[in-house]
Amino acid sequence: MRMYDLIMKKRNGGMLTEEEINYMVMGFTNGEIPDYQMSAMMMAIYFQGMNEQETLDLTMSMANSGDTLDLSGIQGVKCDKHSTGGVGDKVSLILGPMAAAAGIPVAKMSGRGLGHTGGTIDKLESITGFQTSMEQEDFIKQVNEIGIALVGQTAHLAPADKKIYALRDVTATVDNMSLIAGSIMSKKLAAGAESIVLDVKCGNGAFMKSLEDAKALAECMVKIGNGAGRKTIAVISDMNEPLGYAVGNALEVAEAVEVLQGRGEPRLTELCITLGAYMLYGTGLCKAPEEGHRKMEEVLKNHFAYEKFLSFVAAQGGDTEEIKDTKKLIHADYVVEINAPEDGYISSIVAEEVGIAALMLGAGRETKESLLDYSAGFRLLKKTGDSVVKGECIALLYANAEEKIAPAKQRFLDAISFSQEPVEKQPLIKQVIQE
């Protein structure tokens, strides 16, 4: 078998077999196939596409290219949740304890952020003492004892995807549905859960800007997951404005606590309950999503999820006093009011621009080497559809470098549009895809 022949086959519209895909992925991962040949293959795939079987075979090959997490030592049906990313997305911080409190063992690997704000691991590390690495034996023990553990993703999980994505990123071949879906799902499958719930974001702050594209990605990932024998459900949710009120690492931890205490922003709470309901349904712990919805409401109402979060933070070395009183979390030197420039209604908040403004304050990474400012970011006091009066405070800006305040504040204001007429709030949940 030669890589040259496989490139020509795909270039001419042929279908690659499972054996050919395995040869290609393993050869590239091991360094036997050079970058230029894999780049040529990615371009051929970009133009010719892959069918369902090829997409599944590619995903499985990437998933099996390195370590796979063996969760068989954990009691119960494991369910993983994945978000395609957005601005202010602190769902994993909330949903993990909710799911654990409802009886789902949560054994989750998460990554760091590159871009707008930190990833789930970065947010957790804004809690003093919180440890995001542990041996697999301790990881499994913690899940069995308290129902939840969350650690950083190992570099040996789906290494083929990491190498292939690095090539796609510099050869203009990122934007292909099979390659996008395969990249995401290879890591989810390697992480070992028997059921997967996907939160596919849609809108100006998401990778998929249109509902049509978000639906296509969701359908592709659900087919991969189900084809791999994992019960997979996708929820398409709105990302045309930041999720919740907070954007920034410690600020998002504080907001996660608000939701777990039953006093969170309604749309953020709604999303966590919806995803949790489908996690319960996907693992067979309830017969219908509606039953799961009620159970998730209960774990918030009776503070079981909040207590689970405290146990989780304590188990991983975090200071629970910062959770009991979030004012003790790391805080910024400067807190600046952002005021409405006119009367009216907020007609839109461009999530991506708010994310960039937070990045300017240090809440995200411009490069892998960038140091995060855990306390930097924004706290929105008004959302799309809310009425405002000129001069009224609509958000708070948190910063530690005075020179960063003015440009970030202006970027934030530029992201907001106003209307003289009332604006209808758009539904958060766009669609649910199960087959």
Commentary on this structure:
- This protein has about 425 residues and is an alpha/beta fold.
- It folds into three domains: about 5-50, Up-down Bundle (Transferase, Pyrimidine Nucleoside Phosphorylase, Chain A, domain 3), CATH 1.20.970; about 80-325, Nucleoside phosphorylase/phosphoribosyltransferase catalytic domain (Pyrimidine Nucleoside Phosphorylase, Chain A, domain 2), CATH 3.40.1030; about 330-420, Aldehyde Oxidoreductase, domain 3.
- It is built from 17 helices and 13 strands.
- A four-stranded mixed β-sheet has the order 1-4-5-13, with helices on both faces.
- The longest helix has 17 residues, at about 210-225.
- The protein is globular and about 70 Å long.
- The model has no long low-confidence stretch (mean pLDDT about 95).
Q: In the CATH classification, which architecture of the largest domain applies? A: 3-Layer(aba) Sandwich
Structural category is: alpha/beta
C-alpha end-to-end distance: 35 Å
For the residues shown, what is the average pLDDT? 94
Q: How is the largest sheet built, in terms of strand order?
A: 1-4-5-13
Which fold name is given in CATH as the topology of the largest domain? Pyrimidine Nucleoside Phosphorylase, Chain A, domain 2
Helix share bin: 40-55%
What is the secondary structure topology, with strand pairs?
Layout: H1 3-11, H2 18-29, H3 35-48, H4 52-63, E1 79-83, H5 91-101, E2 106-110, H6 120-124, H7 136-146, E3 148-152, H8 159-170, H9 177-190, E4 195-202, H10 211-227, E5 231-238, E6 246-247, H11 249-260, H12 266-282, H13 289-301, H14 304-315, H15 321-324, E7 334-339, E8 344-349, H16 351-361, E9 377-380, E10 387-388, E11 393-399, H17 402-414, E12 416-419, E13 429-433
